[in-house]
């Protein structure tokens, strides 16, 4: 008997689900829906993975409402999938066993800003840009920037990263504590606001990155940072990808205070030129940004210019004014949509491997050779300051041979990254798309993860079919 069939048999039959959904409809009113269009929206994956919509969608307004819903789903054995902004790329939101999507977008308040302590408390449904708009007058900002305007709860659940991670870290470093609803409906807070603690197991780090399989995050305390006095962004073309990667490694090893350093290969530059109305040379290119005082950012820019020249890069073009910087980084953030417009009708197979910075140049070079050998349309972009890069094959799903080559490429890319002491996912998570790679990376550690999952969610109602 297939595993999916065995798992499906563990959940409530249709008549019990219908009764539970009727109960939720009576309680929540127009905050509960079984509309097909809404259900499909909540199963959306943004990738080549098939949409598997839930059977219903609920919109809670508080942690207490989430707890009540989860408790009833656990008692009835109905799967439940937490939903933030819908920007995940590995099928995290799909409902392979049906069930209920719990949309937290109505829980979007900034609860408190503790400016003196450089932290804030927010509900899980608030989005990154809205938070930074609220913080603007305080002189503080939240730096984790995955590109998409994701919800903070979803970013915590997937341990999100982004363009600023090289200086400010990922969600792992910037979440102080979370409030979460466990599978049995209990509400747990994982810590206080102290900058460090040695009290027991690190429950915050356990839930950050658990992809909604261990608990549903309803509130977070986040670290904040001061807005830099001066910012300079720059664009630097290179003769080849190896030079761009080597310059990146040299800058990091030198301790240069780079806030962002992004790689775009020649194909992606062509795509971004067309989509974002840029006029960059079609060569391997680094987008870089420096934060600090006016004097320090000028010094850092000059040092990077020297490093780039030593690795076949330059001339570097600076963008010091806010409008030019915004245009440059908007083009970087629009990469996904620019790729989709470049080959209309194609699906995207988004990869996100990460390797130690010293292995980056070799890994990218072998990957580029693989793309050419397989004849794929596959631009490369990356947060290369921390060794993370994305290759995005654009696939015509009706072409079975092209699909086969793309999947073969993805498997080889993951094997290569792990062989270089890296990971199959630097920031997107496992979800459905990368389940087959987890054991190759963690070995028997996967069994420990399963044991934790079984302990906290014995009925397997929280986002089933993900990670394992």
Gist?
The chain is of the alpha+beta class. Helices cover 39% and strands 18% of the residues.
Q: Helices, strands, pairings?
A:
Elements: H1 3-9, H2 14-28, E1 32-33, H3 36-41, E2 56-58, H4 63-76, E3 80-83, E4 100-103, E5 110-114, E6 119-123, H5 128-135, E7 140-141, H6 152-157, H7 165-168, H8 171-174, E8 175-181, E9 187-189, H9 203-207, E10 216-223, E11 225-226, E12 230-237, H10 241-254, E13 258-264, H11 266-276, E14 285-292, H12 294-310, E15 317-319, H13 322-333, H14 335-342, E16 347-348, E17 353-354, H15 360-374, E18 380-383, E19 388-391, E20 394-395, H16 400-419, H17 438-442, H18 445-456
Parallel strand pairs: 2-4, 3-4
Antiparallel strand pairs: 1-2, 5-6, 6-10, 7-11, 8-9, 8-10, 12-14, 12-15, 13-14, 13-18, 16-20, 17-19, 18-19
Helix pairs in contact: 2-4, 10-12, 10-15, 11-14, 15-16
């Amino acid at each position: 008997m297939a595993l999916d069939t065995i798992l499906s048999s563990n959940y409530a039959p249709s008549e019990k689900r219908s009764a539970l959904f009727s109960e939720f409809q009576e309680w929540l009113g127009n905050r509960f829906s079984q509309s097909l269009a809404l259900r499909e929206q909540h199963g959306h994956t943004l990738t080549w993975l098939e949409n598997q919509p839930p059977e219903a969608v609920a919109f809670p307004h508080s942690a207490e409402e989430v707890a009540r819903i989860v408790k009833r789903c656990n008692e009835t054995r109905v799967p439940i999938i937490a939903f933030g902004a819908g920007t995940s790329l590995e099928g995290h939101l799909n409902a392979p066993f049906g069930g209920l999507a719990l949309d937290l977008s109505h829980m979007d308040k900034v609860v408190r800003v503790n400016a003196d302590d450089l932290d804030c408390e927010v509900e899980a449904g608030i989005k990154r840009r809205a938070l930074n708009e609220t913080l603007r007058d305080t002189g503080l900002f939240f730096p984790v920037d995955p590109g998409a305007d994701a919800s903070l709860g979803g970013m915590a659940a997937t341990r999100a990263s982004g363009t600023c991670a090289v200086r400010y870290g990922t969600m792992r470093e910037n979440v102080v504590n979370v409030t979460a609803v466990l599978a049995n409906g209990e509400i747990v807070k994982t810590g206080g606001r102290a900058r460090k603690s040695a009290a027991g197991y690190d429950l915050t780090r356990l839930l950050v990155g658990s992809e909604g399989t261990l608990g549903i995050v309803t509130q977070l305390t986040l670290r904040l940072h001061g807005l830099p006095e001066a910012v300079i962004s720059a664009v630097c073309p290179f003769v080849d990808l190896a030079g761009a990667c080597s310059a990146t490694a040299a800058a990091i090893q030198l301790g240069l205070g780079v806030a962002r350093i992004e790689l775009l290969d020649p194909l992606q530059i062509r795509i971004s030129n067309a989509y974002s109305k840029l006029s960059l040379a079609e060569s391997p290119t680094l987008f870089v940004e420096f934060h600090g005082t006016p004097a320090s950012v000028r010094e850092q820019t000059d040092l990077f210019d020297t490093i780039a020249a030593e690795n076949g890069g330059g001339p570097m073009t600076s963008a010091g004014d806010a409008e030019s910087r915004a245009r440059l980084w908007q083009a970087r953030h629009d990469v996904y949509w620019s790729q989709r417009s470049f080959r209309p009708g194609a699906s995207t197979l988004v990869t996100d491997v990460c390797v130690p910075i010293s292995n980056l140049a070799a890994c990218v070079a072998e990957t580029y050779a693989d793309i050419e050998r397989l004849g794929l349309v596959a631009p490369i972009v990356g947060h290369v300051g921390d060794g993370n890069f994305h290759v995005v094959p654009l696939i015509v799903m009706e072409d079975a041979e092209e699909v086969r080559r793309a999947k073969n490429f993805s498997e080889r890319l993951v094997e290569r990254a792990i062989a270089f002491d890296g990971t199959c996912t630097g920031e997107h998570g496992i979800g459905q798309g990368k389940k087959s790679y987890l054991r190759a990376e963690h070995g028997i550690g996967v069994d420990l993860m399963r044991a934790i999952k079984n302990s906290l969610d014995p009925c397997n109602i929280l986002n089933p079919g993900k990670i394992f």
